[in-house]
Amino acid sequence: MDRRKFLKQAGASVLALTVGGSLRAANADDVSYDNSQVEHKDIRMKHKCKITVLKRECYKDLQEKYLADPKSGPCPYFREGQVIMVDSDNFFRMLNGTFCAEAWDCISRYVYAALQGGSIMQGWTNDERVMITCCNDGTRPVVFKLERIDEED
Description:
Helix content: 25-40%
Radius of gyration: 20 Å
Oligomer: single chain
Number of strands: 6
Strand order of the largest sheet: 4-3-6-5
Shape: globular
């Protein structure tokens, strides 16, 4: 299978799984989406994403060895147990000094998926609406729990 056919089939598969239907394809040129088994309701869902800070790690040995400030300590932006609610109104404004830019860069794609009603980690966690993730700071990472919150509109 060439690359173009593979990407076409893979993209359609992801779309089908995200919306809850099934994918039927005889070959990569004949990709069709079947949503006949998806129950359509007149209820519109609105989604939010709850971000909970689970842990703030601090690796002092790495900080002493590699950082310009070897006594920098744990991340100053977050505290354990802190909860941040994100909705479609404040998603694009999270960097107005309220969220670490590096952490936001790591998790924003998953937050966006949750706001769209998508599965954050289908097949990986025991609840597809929940994801455990962290920022990319190697000496003081922060571990987050992301939860998609579904509300009727």
